[in-house]
From TrEMBL:
InterPro entries referenced in this protein's UniProt entry, alphabetically: DUF2922
Name of the featured protein: DUF2922 domain-containing protein
Pfam short name (any one): DUF2922
Domain of life where this protein originates: Bacteria
Amino acid sequence: MKTLNLTFKGSLGKKHILKLSYANDQLDAETVRQAMINLANTHLFFKDSEELYVTPIATKYVDTIPTVLFNAEKQAPVAE
């Protein structure tokens, strides 16, 4: 699964990452930067009196490869 990770600095100086699972994977840097600026300008996201997404810092696509350890949905019933 590929996610788009947007890293921002919050109003208290902490880093916050917004992970988008269904983002277009063909976006260029300037398009994403402008979207991050627009998001920051909404001033909508707060937690414990900190505004979370104030200053865009970085963005990257991240590919995740799941490794299944077990899946109870696909196991045969256990005989007693």
